[in-house]
Amino acid sequence: MSSIELSDAPAKAYKDKGEHSHLVPKSVKVSWGAGALGVALLMNAIGSLALFYMVGVLKIDPVLAGSLIFVTKLFDVATDPIVGSWSDRVKSETSRRRPFLFAGAIVSALSFAMIFTTPVFGNQLFTAAYVLVAMMIYAFGYTLFNVPYMSMPSEMTPDYHERSSIHSYRMVFVSLGGLLAGAVAPFMLEKMGRTEWSSYATIGVLGGGTILLFMMIAWAGTAKARFTVAQKETPKVLAEVGHVFTNRHFIRLICVKLTQLLGVASSQAAMIFFILNALQRDLTVMTYYGITLSLTAIIASPICVRISRKIGKKFAYTIGSSFFILTCLSWMLAGPGEPTWAIMLRAAGTAIAMSFNVIMAMSMLTDIINYDAEKNGIRREGVFTSFYSFAEKFTYAFGPLIVGVALSIAGFDKDLPAEAMQSPAIRHAVLLGVSYLPGFMGLVSLIILLGYKLDKEVQAEAPKS
Description:
InterPro entries: MFS_2 (IPR039672), MFS_trans_sf (IPR036259). The protein has 465 residues and is mainly α.
């Protein structure tokens, strides 16, 4: 009946541990988590820098720039489920996922360098065409690595809380990747020239090398991790995709992430404009913001796991969502010359929200995958993860588009220095991105989250196929 079965064949590190055999070795957790630094740098740098880079350096109209990002994400409508199903169906005596990690690392690194070394043509449409191609390669590389990568924790252990522990290691590397994208990169831009093409080219080359290194660590270091193997019976792709949308727990979790991440994406896209235009600060303040964010997230990650063991994953997630809403709304109180300590305090609130939200959401996703497998006898890690990944990228398409349209309506002039555009209309346009929309969507996501029912007790009662 089952099309996919579990295998412990390569997992020598787990043998002879008795009741602790479900625990994943720290070396595997660290190696797997390291890949998240590459993913975080890739996603956060594109999310926070791409729109400003296109508008301020490449001189592409804000609406066109936002549309380019949006269109490339539509490409993932096809690639995410295809890669997810493909990684489920691969016949191999070793991990089905790791070959995708290897290929995805190379494509992701190259695409990152391509984007930030875009040639500036005399016609903005030619420049936009190059960006479109580079962004599509980026979207495919991200999918090729991230969908199989995020499928792996549900295979590594059957333990309900151990899955949260795995993702807490990932959160540390997510924080470090965010530090590079959110603090180091803006600092470099401020020192080298935030509107200089060569500054972004330097970031593109250095960032691409870093992405390749850490993604390859994940590929090499998970060779002994537990995995699942495909049997001779090949599941039909459309049937597998259709099955995903009959899972009410998954649908609710996806709705939570869609609403919440739309606010996160718009906030990232608008933050540089907000710093320069509304707060009238230079980008060095983002160094303080990024360092505070990363250090707080690293500290908060193990605390999040402990709290979830005490009160449950849903309520731990609720804590993170509440911090997110309050922090976003607090930006409405910020004004020109905002003190650095106030910006750092908001960074700490954002970090707590990020740690709780990311760890709990991903742990809940692996719970859903294992619950579904126990009920139906078929493991669909890749398909479930592909739609989760698509939700993430779809929101990151809408965020820059919304900010780009808002800036255009407010009268943003791409030919003027960013700090010269400080009108009330521009302030409200960037506040829409960093405060109004994230706060509202965060509240909606919190309401949806309250109806989530798959806790440890429900999973333990799942009928075995």
